[in-house]
């Protein structure tokens, strides 16, 4: 088998072999000092292993198949090569090693079985220790040779041959496709040796390892063919499901299970689940759950063969022999630790401490991470050299590896299986209630709290973190604000209980954990839980103890623990912000002892009252500022970045995480952070002035969050009292200092485009009212820098600069400046032709904002602004937006918005020019094509809005334009057939925009519009999508308004068609909907319909008044005979409608 690994060759050199160094006088002519390596030899000089390898390799290459004494020479050279340890710093020529192995395989005939075994050992030894990446030729030669040896050689050689083959195919499975049919096909040698019926456990183990290495997928490589992956998966699963054969050593059985687990992990990693349905998944999960507790003390249960998805947990049934219980604390201990809940918690901690301390010290040496797979490295007996030297210690180690392998597989399942599918199995791995009487269920929390191996506990925490990650939508159902009063327990209450149990167990694990690596995983797992749990639907009191419990760890010696603690605090201030419980926690001073309790009595009123008198910054904010700016308290921490003789700051990961927490705090709880606005700005400025680009970037992002928080305060819809806002004078002072500081250097730092990008985003977060009060030179500097950065060669910088200009064009102090509007328009037009889709998308968004500004100026400034703007610039904008409407959807959605605004903005004098005729038709046809296309609903919604916007321009001759028929036809089609109700709403609103009857064209077109709206109203509840059904009331609101608008502008020629529609069953159905609209019986959804229809907020009285005016006008119409009959039906319909609406 594998060669022995012992001391390296230099360690065995006798004293006489050590080179003597003659004394050299100290002088300028003395040769330079050459440092010694760790093995005592000069750095750069070849080691004994390298010399030995070169000598033996040269002699092997000189041998020929017909050489005399060939067998003796090969035997000697193989022994010499196998005796060396190549794990030292030895970097051989890869091509030489490959050519040597190819040449040597041709020297050893398969009939010489002892030489075949030694050659296979040499192949495994060299490839394993030298980490050689073989070329295709060498791979093919060696696979052919080992495959031939399996056919021709005796059974006693196959173990070594398979070991060599497993090393050869490691990560090369797809490249061995021509050999896979022999290895993994029907009656393949690997299937034969890996079968559960194989009596030779060593052959079975090596065959499983070989299959695992074939299934292993290296980064950048194609996956193994699904046929062979499925075959291997079945073998691995059968191995895990099979019981230990009789008279088999437990250690050997553990090694076989380990190999199967590694193979299963290779099959599951790096892709989605492709191995069958619920039955197969349940079998895998059942096997993994059983192996999660392999060798665990006190676990003796009957395990199910398959786990089935269920809303309630599946409890394992106890077998006849009862497991031994942990010793109970004495009465004295119980009295000392107290009673009630506290004693229960301490009792749990005592038991956990006993279990964890058993092997924490003896297994600490295995906790160091390794970049090279441990299961590919050669095992040696030195791994088991502990003070006891007992077989029991070795067995515990192997059991721990099995549990760790099972958890690794479970982690791969959690990442590969669709989240929605995995939710059904949560109850098998996460308890939904605390253990109250009887044996507790065996779950991941059992391992986290009681497994003796810190590495196994860390793996269980990783699995739990993967299950919690992205579970926000699933956990959103959880609720326990009120106790269930029904005879059954609702699923929402079960989920809430599971969240509470996770909090309880992870808090216990936090107190009991001693391994820094595992402690880091506990805190990360808590962060995932906090980020996904719906605390606004749970009874308060979960976050306060956690907040208090984490405080001591912010100064932990291990840097990874400190980083994870900050990550958890970031999750606490991010989740459903602002939470009243977190509001109260932020107000408590650093030394407060009340942070561990929060009851419903601590209502939102209490912290609002305290907010009025508390002016001190939040403790968490002070902590983050000190971590970013102050020297580290414990200067002995080896993780810090020391500087000469000065005091070292916190390590970069800690400072970066502290800056992120500050950003989260500012975003979610700006009212608590605004008192320290200038101080936070100074921290950001300091970060921008440092040399570390990551620190600079986070400093810029913190500034952006501050600016965004100020903007949110000043938005009218947020209704923030002026007394609670940051004073305008302070905002102006803040931005004056920021813009005169290191932000300018960041904007011009071409070596770090990501920093430039973030600095552009910071410029776009300036409050518009504050920007207007900045000095003129500062305003000019901002505009000039942004215009210049739109010509950057980096697409990220260009994208951010174009977006910032799209924000600035909306500023009241800039939007009426024709020169700025023109410069911005030209810049945006150039960006619309960029090759980067990201740049084009932001350019289209900015063009949409610019055209919004044109409409605002047209309404506020009037014709003067329209006349000052260049006709040719408008023409270029129209043509560019038309071209962009054929781009990707994220470009198209804003391009059609810009088209609608431009068609609304153009004046009669411009539309009458010949140069505008063709672009005008192209623009409208682009909108029509987009409305009728299969684009995303957002794009079609914007296109319908754009057509309605264009209809508002009285200069467009809708009655005679060649394109108007297509425009109305497309909207009529969408309002009746589109699956998305919001698109229907916007198309109905567009059809109601024309203000006069002439805009609707001839009688046939008007009748088509009416029929489409009436049909859409009749079918307004026909949908199979519940998400669309919630918009049905808004749709009916808009359709009713549109129908009444058509009645208000109708003429005598329209009466026959209207009368035919309103007479009979169809008319009665329409009247019922119109009554609800006029009476405003749709409630809030009706208001949403008004918003979608253009912001009309008419009252029921105003709607009745409009109906009366329509009725009076229609009665005065002079009609012919057929028209008169239709008119009578319409008038009677309106009279009945008015009568019904006026009834109480």
In short:
The chain is mainly α. 62% of the residues lie in helices and 0% in strands.
Structure description:
- With 1144 residues, this protein is mainly alpha-helical.
- Among the domains are: 48-170; 417-481 and 489-585, Leucine-rich Repeat Variant, CATH 1.25.10.
- It has 56 helices and 2 strands.
- The chain has a two-stranded antiparallel ribbon with strand order 1-2.
- Helix 19 (454-468) runs parallel beside helix 22.
- The longest helix has 26 residues, at 391-416.
CATH topology of the domain at 417-481 and 489-585: Leucine-rich Repeat Variant
Number of helices: 56
> What does the main sheet amount to?
2 strands, antiparallel
CATH C-level class of the domain at 417-481 and 489-585 is Mainly Alpha
Envelope shape: elongated
Which structural class fits the helix and strand makeup?
A: mainly alpha
User: Percent range for helical residues?
Assistant: 55-70%
Radius of gyration: 38 Å
Strand content: under 5%
Strand order of the largest sheet: 1-2
The average pLDDT is 82
Task: List the uncertain runs.
Answer: 1-45, 312-388, 593-614, 641-645, 1084-1090
Based on DSSP secondary structure assignment, what is the total number of beta strands? Answer: 2
């Amino acid at each position: 088998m594998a060669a022995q690994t012992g001391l390296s060759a230099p360690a065995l050199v006798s004293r006489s072999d050590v080179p003597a160094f003659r004394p050299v006088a100290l002088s300028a002519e003395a040769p330079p000092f050459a440092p010694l390596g760790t093995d005592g030899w000069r750095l750069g000089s070849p080691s004994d292993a390298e010399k030995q390898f070169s000598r033996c390799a040269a002699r092997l290459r000189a041998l020929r198949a017909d050489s005399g004494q060939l067998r003796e020479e090969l035997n000697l050279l193989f022994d010499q090569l196998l005796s060396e340890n190549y794990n030292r710093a030895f970097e051989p020529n890869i091509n030489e090693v490959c050519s040597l192995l190819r040449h040597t395989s041709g020297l050893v005939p398969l009939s010489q079985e002892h030489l075949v075994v030694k050659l296979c050992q040499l192949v495994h030894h060299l490839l394993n220790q030298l980490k050689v990446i073989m070329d295709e030729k060498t791979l093919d030669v060696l696979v052919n040779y080992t495959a031939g040896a399996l056919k021709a050689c005796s059974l006693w050689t196959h173990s070594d041959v398979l070991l060599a083959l497993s090393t050869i195919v490691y990560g090369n499975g797809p490249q061995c496709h021509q050999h896979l049919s022999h290895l993994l096909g029907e009656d393949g040698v690997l299937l034969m040796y890996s079968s559960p019926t194989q009596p030779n456990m060593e052959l079975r183990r090596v065959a499983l390892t070989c299959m695992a290495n074939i299934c292993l997928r290296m980064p950048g490589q194609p996956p193994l063919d699904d046929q062979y992956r499925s075959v291997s998966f079945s073998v691995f699963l059968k191995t895990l499901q099979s019981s230990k054969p009789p008279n088999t050593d437990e250690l050997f059985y553990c090694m076989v299970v380990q190999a199967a687990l590694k193979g299963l992990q290779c099959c599951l990693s790096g892709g989605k689940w492709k191995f069958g349905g619920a039955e197969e998944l349940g079998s895998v999960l059942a096997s993994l759950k059983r192996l999660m507790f392999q060798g665990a003390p006190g676990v003796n249960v009957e395990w199910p063969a398959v786990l089935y998805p269920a809303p309630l947990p599946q409890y394992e049934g106890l077998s006849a022999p009862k497991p031994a219980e942990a010793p109970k604390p004495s009465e004295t201990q119980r009295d000392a630790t107290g009673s009630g809940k506290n004693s229960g918690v301490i009792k749990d901690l005592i038991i956990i401490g006993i279990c964890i301390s058993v092997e924490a010290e003896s297994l600490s040496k295995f906790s160091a991470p390794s970049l090279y797979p441990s299961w590919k490295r050669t095992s040696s007996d030195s791994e088991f050299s502990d003070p006891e030297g007992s077989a029991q210690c070795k067995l515990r180690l192997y059991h721990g590896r099995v549990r760790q392998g099972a958890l690794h597989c479970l982690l791969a399942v959690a990442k590969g299986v669709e989240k929605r599918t995995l939710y059904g199995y949560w109850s098998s791995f996460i308890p939904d209630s605390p253990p109250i009487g009887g044996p507790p269920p065996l779950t991941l929390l059992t391992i986290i709290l009681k497994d003796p191996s810190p590495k196994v506990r860390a793996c269980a925490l990783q699995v739990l973190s993967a299950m919690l990650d992205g579970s926000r939508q699933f956990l959103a159902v959880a609720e326990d604000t009120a106790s269930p009063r029904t005879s059954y327990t609702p699923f929402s209450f079960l989920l809430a209980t599971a969240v509470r149990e996770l909090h309880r167990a992870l808090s216990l694990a936090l107190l009991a954990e001693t391994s820094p690596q595992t402690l880091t995983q506990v805190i990360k797992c808590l962060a995932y839980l906090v980020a996904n749990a719906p605390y606004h639907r749970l009874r308060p009191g979960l976050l306060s103890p956690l907040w208090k419990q984490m405080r001591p760890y912010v100064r932990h010696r291990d840097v990874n623990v400190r980083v994870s603690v900050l990550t958890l605090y970031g999750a606490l201030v991010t989740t459903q912000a602002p939470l009243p419980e977190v509001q109260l926690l932020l107000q408590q001073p650093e030394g407060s002892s009340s942070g561990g309790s929060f009851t419903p009595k601590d209502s939102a009123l209490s912290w609002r009252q305290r907010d009025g008198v508390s002016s001190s910054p939040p403790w968490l904010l002070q902590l983050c500022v000190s971590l970013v700016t102050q020297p580290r308290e414990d200067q002995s921490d080896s993780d810090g970045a020391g500087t000469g003789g000065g005091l070292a700051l916190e390590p970069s990961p800690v400072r970066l995480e502290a800056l992120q927490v500050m950003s989260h705090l500012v975003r979610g709880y700006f009212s608590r952070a605004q008192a320290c606005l200038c101080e936070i700005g100074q921290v950001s400025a300091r970060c921008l002035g440092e040399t570390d680009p990551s620190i600079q970037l986070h400093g810029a992002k913190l500034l952006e969050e501050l600016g965004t928080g100020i903007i949110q305060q000043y938005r009218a819809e947020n209704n923030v009292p002026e007394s609670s806002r940051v004073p305008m004078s302070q905002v102006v002072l803040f931005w004056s200092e920021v813009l005169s500081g290191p932000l300018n250097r960041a904007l011009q730092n071409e070596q770090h485009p990501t920093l430039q990008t973030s600095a552009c985003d910071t410029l776009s977060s300036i409050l518009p009212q504050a920007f207007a009060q900045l000095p003129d030179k500062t305003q000019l500097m901002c505009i000039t820098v942004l215009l210049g950065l739109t010509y950057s060669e980096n697409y990220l910088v260009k994208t951010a600069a174009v977006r910032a200009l799209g924000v600035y064009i909306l500023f009241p102090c800039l939007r009426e400046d024709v020169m700025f509007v023109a410069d911005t328009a030209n810049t945006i037009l150039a960006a619309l032709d960029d090759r980067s889709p990201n740049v084009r998308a932001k350019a289209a968004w900015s063009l949409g904002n610019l055209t919004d500004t044109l409409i605002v100026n047209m309404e506020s400034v009037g014709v003067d602004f329209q006349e000052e703007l260049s006709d040719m610039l408008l023409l270029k904008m129209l043509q560019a937006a038309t071209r962009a409407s054929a781009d990707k959807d994220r470009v198209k959605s804003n391009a059609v918005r810009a088209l609608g605004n431009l068609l609304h903005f153009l004046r009669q004098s411009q539309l009458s020019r010949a140069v505008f005729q063709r672009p005008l038709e192209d623009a409208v046809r682009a909108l029509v094509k987009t409305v009728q296309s299969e684009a995303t609903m957002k794009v079609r919604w914007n296109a319908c809005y754009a057509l309605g916007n264009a209809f508002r321009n009285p200069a467009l001759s809708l009655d005679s334009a060649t394109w108007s028929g297509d425009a109305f036809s497309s909207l009529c089609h969408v309002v009746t057939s589109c699956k998305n109700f919001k698109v229907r709403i916007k198309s109905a609103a567009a059809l109601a925009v024309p203000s006069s009857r002439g805009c609707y064209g001839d009688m046939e077109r008007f009748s088509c519009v009416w029929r489409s709206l009436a049909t859409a109203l009749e079918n307004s509840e026909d949908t199979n999508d519940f998400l669309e059904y919630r918009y049905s009331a808004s749709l009916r609101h808009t359709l009713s308004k549109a129908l009444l608008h058509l009645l208000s502008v109708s003429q005598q020629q329209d009466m026959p068609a209207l009368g035919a529609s309103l007479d009979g069953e169809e008319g009665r159905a329409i009247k019922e909907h119109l009554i609800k609209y006029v009476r405003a019986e749709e409630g809030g959804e009706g208001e949403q319909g008004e918003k979608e229809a253009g912001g009309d907020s008419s009252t029921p009285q105003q709607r009745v008044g409009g109906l009366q005016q329509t009725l009076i006008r229609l009665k005065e119409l002079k009609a012919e005979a057929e028209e008169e009959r239709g008119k009578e039906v319409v008038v009677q319909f309106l009279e009945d409608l008015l009568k019904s609406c006026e009834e109480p």
